[in-house]
Amino acid sequence: MQTFRNPLKADGPDPWLVYHAGYYYLSTTSAVDIRMRKARRLADLSSAPDTIIWRDPTPDRCCDIWAPEYYLLPDANGAPRWYLYYTASDGIEDRNHRLHIAESEGTDPMGPYTYKARLETDPANAYYAIDGSVLRKADGSLYLAWAGHPGHVLFLASLSDPWTIVGERVYLPAAGFGCSEVREGPVFLQRNGKIFLVYSACDTGKPDYQMGMLVADEGSDVLDPKSWTQVPAPVFARADANGVFGPGHNHFFTSPDGT
């Protein structure tokens, strides 16, 4: 049996990992830019070098770059491109965080990338928005989930293409299991006709940071909050006996054979 030792990256908040064309690609929050590791085997990610794939000196999105996620999606002409979603601000005030997207020139997750757009999560660009995550349903329709203000809660909206939100955002109620501070870090998992939305709750600096889950049917109207059912207990939470504290903002990925 082949084994590997955790962690795959000692300092790696907000991990995002995909398997593509024979390689694993891993990114985490570095705050100053976006970096990616590439390896044939999961175990080799621990020693793989970090390559800077995105940096942007533009003043309103230069700093505090968080939570990169990347998806292979069709561009305006139907050609596959990697779309790099990330959160950035001006480095002056946390409330100035917004969601941005860069587009790859080809089908290499490591780019190169060019800046595409700021995602307009509200018409007046008034509200803080972080942790953008994409849902692509079986019918090809696209949606964006994120954590935003007011309230630092979960929102969901429809996308007409990877960089354009259409229609109004929808608030998705989500349990905090005793924590009232935040709901953030939404990610999707799709299996067996179900859509699972896993999110983080509580404050990131507390050992009670934990992950809850909402569930909807694949064929449902995901923009209707009534389509989502709350799982009554956290799916990942602190386990003092095992020395595990504050699990949060994750990603799901498949093995090379897709299982």
Overview of this structure, please?
With 259 residues, this protein is mostly beta strands. It has strands at residues 16-20, 23-29, 34-39, 51-54, 63-74, 80-89, 98-104, 113-118, 129-136, 142-148, 153-161, 164-172, 183-191, 194-201, 210-217, 229-230. Strands 1-2-3-4 form a 4-stranded antiparallel beta sheet, with no helix packed on it. A 4-stranded antiparallel beta sheet has the order 5-6-7-8, with no helix packed on it. The chain has a 4-stranded antiparallel beta sheet with strand order 9-10-11-12, with no helix packed on it. The model has no long low-confidence stretch (mean pLDDT 95).
**End-to-end C-alpha gap:** 18 Å
Indicate the structural class.
Answer: mainly beta
Q: How would you spell out the order of helices and strands? A: EEEEEEEEEEEEEEEE
Query: Please, what is the average pLDDT?
Result: 95
Q: Going across the major beta sheet, what is the strand order?
A: 1-2-3-4
Helicity level, as a percent range?
under 10%
Shape: globular
Unreliable parts: none
Biggest beta-sheet profile: 4 strands, antiparallel
